[in-house]
Structure formats: C-alpha cells, structure tokens
Design goal:
The complex is a heterodimer of chains A (about 260) and B (about 140). Chain A has about 260 residues and is of the alpha+beta class. Helix content of chain A is about 35%, strand content about 10%. In chain A, strands 2-5-3-4 form a four-stranded mixed beta sheet, with helices on one face. Chain A has a two-stranded antiparallel ribbon with strand order 1-6. In chain A, strand 3 (about 125-130), helix 4 (about 145-150) and strand 4 form a beta-alpha-beta unit. Chain A is elongated, with a radius of gyration of 31 Å. In chain A, about 25% of the residues are buried. Chain B has about 140 residues and is α+β, with helices and mostly antiparallel strands. In chain B, about 30% of the residues are buried. Chains A and B meet through strand 1, helix 3, helix 4 and strand 6 of A and helix 1, strand 1 and strand 4 of B. Chain A: Pfam families: RNase_P_pop3 (PF08228). Chain A: This is BA75_00892T0.
C-alpha cells in the first residue's frame, strides 16, 4: 500500500498513519437555550436610528471639547452617563448585580469581592450589543444572564442585539472604530423616544437562573474523529511473557515466605 | 498531524450515530450534577461541580468545552457573570494592537481564564468543527 509520502508496506511511519474513523460521545451543555430577547424589525431600525443620532451629537461634542470653545458648545447630558465598550459596560452591570445580591439570595462567600472602581461605574439601564458583528461568541455570551441578574423589579435592564452591519454605522456616527457595545441610562435629555421604543423589548430569558429551574434532559453529542488502529500481532507473546513473569514472582514470594 | 483534523480532509465517510449512548447513566449523572451546581450557590454549588468533575474523570467521560469553561479549575465554582467571575478585555501590548486582545475571566478565588481571541477571531474549537449530531 503506497501512501502520500510514497512509503510502502508496514514501515513504522506507515503504521502510525493508519487510523480509523470513530464517533466519540461528548456531554453537551444543557443550558443552550439562554436566549437574547427577540425584537421586531421596525423597533430595531428605530433604535438604531436614535442611537446614531445620539452618537453623532456626542461625537460633535468630543471634537469641539479640546478647542477651548466651551462657552458655545452644547454638552449632551448623555456624555457623563453612558458607557462605550466592553469593559465599562460590563463593569457597570456587575456593580448593579452586587447591589442586588440580597434579592437573588446570592452568597458571595468569604472571598474577596470583584474589584470595581466606582468612578467608572455608571447607572445604565439599556444595553446595546452588535452581537452578530462581534467575533468570537464568547465575548457576548455573558450579557443575557448579567443583564437579568442586574435588573430588579423597579429597574429592569434591557438588552438589545443590534442587526448585523450596525457596527459600521455606529462607528461612523461616533467617529471611533469598533463601536460595538453601548450602555445607556434611562433618563437623559432626549430619552423619551428611546424609552418608548424600549417598552417593546422583553427581558432576556435565562431559565436556569429562575427560582425553580427545570431539569433539562440529557443531551449527548457525537464528534467525528480518528483513532489509531491497534495491532494485535504480538498479543500472544505478550501474554506468555506476562504469565512467565507472574509465575516467577510467585515462586519468589513463596521462597520469601519459607525463609 | 493533518490526519487528526476531520474538517480538513474531505474523504470522510458519514458514520451512523449509535442508537444508544454509551455510558448513558454516567452522562445523565454528571449532567444532573452540573445543573444542580448551576442552580445552587456557595459551598454546595462547588461540591456539585467537584463531584461532576471527579465522576467524569473516573468513568472517562468527555465533557463539552462550553461546560468546562463555566467551572473554575481551582475552586470548582460555577462561574456566573458579576457574581463569581468578572470578564474583562485586556491588552498588554504597548501599541494596544488588536492582535493582542485577551479576554480574561477572573474568578473570585483569583484564578484567571485567558482567551487570546485577538490572534484569530474566527477560531473554533475542535468540537465546534467536527460535531456530527445528537443523541437524547
């Protein structure tokens, strides 16, 4: 049998390459149904338009800020209340979770708490994530459960996955590359339009965080992979060797006992 | 070895899924333990996670990376965002090149999981590439 390498017969290199295909079972994550809230197309479009408007005003302010014209610039009230980017948004949500630990009956153990700088933490209620534009998925996985845990009865935190391609629009509006994750407060100057649209948005569903979680049935997935073909040529000899060894050791032990 | 990667070689024949899952009882057991660990908290949750890990090792079960990523390797805590771990994007390079972006998940025990996703944002784990099907 000639292989790719041109090796023929049962050379060692050739034997190593002989593998058969097998299916290996793998325990699947039972919590696959963590879902982002579904939002209607019209609502999404409206939200994106409003976001672009707000970001444009923020970008305008940022541009003029450094030029010593402060008397004439109108400072949008969002600037100090919003978060842009992964870290600041996540930190703000984490701070809210820590405040609500009694509601969730969470024990934080005796370990040190998550360190949060209170200056960077902001009071945000709406989170917008360009979910389909962010790669890999692991960067956005935590948002549904984090938002759900951070929201209480009086302050619901809403999460929206913006449509694909909105990164380009947002980045252009804010004049900063890779604007993917945004956090907004509930109340600022032009918030009434956003508030009305956000009423249609539901909360994210995370079933295993509910007080009485349901047991998810077992799901095992199968991976296709390869496995080396084991050769049984020397099995007889090996067995004989082992037998001989055992006999000898037995004899030795008996001798020891006798002495 | 290129042979180890089924997604790269095109000559794969489709294998039939087995009717019965091998070691089904054990898989059901660790699945239950994992869910118990997720819905409880404190020392009990850690104990369930540890049990799950030990049973999986003893009976040689394969566990999905998506599960293993939600359990701290040091203290066996079930990782919940904002409660037992905090995610953060770190970039330690001087020029803050996007290639060096690293996602850090820090457990409250201090253990850090690092995902250098900047190197290859399209990277997929082996189980994502070669998944065949499910048995319930």
């Amino acid at each position: 049998m000639a292989t790719k390498n041109g090796r023929i017969g049962s050379s060692v290199a050739n034997i190593e390459q002989q593998r058969r295909q097998v299916l290996k079972p793998l325990l699947d994550n039972p919590f696959t149904q963590t879902s982002w809230p579904e939002v209607g197309q019209d609502t999404l479009k409206g939200i994106t338009d409003i976001l672009i408007q707000i970001l444009q005003s923020v970008s305008k302010y940022n541009r003029l800020k450094g030029k010593n014209l402060q008397a004439t610039i109108h400072k949008p009230s969002v600037v100090d209340k919003m978060t842009i980017g992964f870290n600041s948004t996540t930190k703000s949500l984490e701070y809210k979770v820590q405040k609500r630990k009694k509601e969730w009956k969470l024990s934080f153990d005796n370990c040190k708490k998550i360190n949060l700088n209170k200056k960077t933490v902001k009071d945000i209620s709406y989170v917008f994530v360009c979910k389909d534009d962010i790669k890999p998925d692991i960067l956005t996985q935590h948002f549904p459960s984090l938002c759900l845990m951070a929201s209480g009865t009086d302050d619901e935190i809403k999460l929206v996955a913006l449509p694909k391609g909105s990164v380009a629009q947002l980045s252009e509006a804010l004049n900063a590359p890779n604007t993917t994750i945004l956090g907004f407060p509930r109340e600022f100057d032009e918030s009434h339009l956003l508030n009305r649209l956000m009423e249609n948005v539901e909360q994210p569903k995370v079933p295993w965080l509910s007080t009485m979680p349901k047991y998810e049935p077992l799901s095992v997935s199968f991976l296709q992979t390869t496995q080396p073909i084991s050769r049984k040529v020397n099995q007889k000899d090996n067995n004989n060797d082992r037998k001989r060894e055992n006999d000898q050791s037995g004899v030795r032990n008996q001798k020891k006992i006798k002495t | 070895m290129a042979n180890n990667d089924p997604s790269s070689s095109k000559q794969l024949k489709k294998l039939k899924l087995p009717r019965q899952t091998p070691k089904r009882d054990q898989y059901a057991r660790i699945s239950y333990l994992y869910q118990a660990s997720a819905s409880s908290n404190g020392i009990l949750s850690r104990m369930y996670s540890r049990q799950m890990d030990l049973v999986a090792k003893k009976t040689v079960l394969k566990v999905s990376p998506t599960i293993k990523r939600t359990i701290c390797k040091t203290c066996n805590r079930h990782l919940k965002p904002g409660v037992t771990y905090s995610p953060e994007i770190v970039n330690e390079s001087k020029k803050t090149d996007a290639k060096n972006d690293i996602l850090q998940l820090q457990c409250i025990c201090g253990q850090i999981k690092r995902f250098p996703y900047g190197k290859d944002p399209n990277y997929k784990t082996y189980h994502e590439r070669s998944l065949m099907g499910w048995n319930h």
